[in-house]
Amino acid sequence: MKHKKTVLISLVCLVIAAAAGFLALRSAVPDTIMIRGERYSTKVRNQADIEAFLAACGYDSPELLFEHEITIPKHWNETYTSYDELQRSQGFDLLPYKGKAAQEHVYFVSEGRNITVLTSGGRIVAAHICDCDGSEMKLIIG
Known about the structure:
alpha+beta; five-stranded antiparallel sheet; 3 helices
C-alpha cells in the first residue's frame, strides 16, 4: 500500500512539473524582434503600433484594407508548418499560438502587394508580404 502511494505521489509531481514546463514554454514568446539590426517591440495596443512596426520594416503609409478574427489551427497541415518556418526565420513563432484566436490585419502597400500582420494577446505574432493574388509569400523583415 505504501508503495502505491509513493508511485501516485511521484506521478502527480511529474504531471505538475510537465504542466509547469509547458506553461513556461508557451509564455517564452519574445517581446522584441530584430529589424535592421535593432530590437523592435512586438507589443501592440492599436493600429498605430502595427503601422509603426510596418514603418520600421520599411513600409510607410500602408492602407488598412480589412481586419478580422481568425483561429490559428491547433493541428497543422504542411501549409501551416511551412508558414511557421517562414515566421521563425524572421523572429516570430506561431507554435505557442496553436488553437488560439488572432486578428488578421491586411494592408495594401504597393501595386499588387499586400502585407498581412497577425496579432494575438497584444503582440504581433506573424507578418508576411505577398502578391494580392496570394502568390509569392515573402518575409516582411529582411
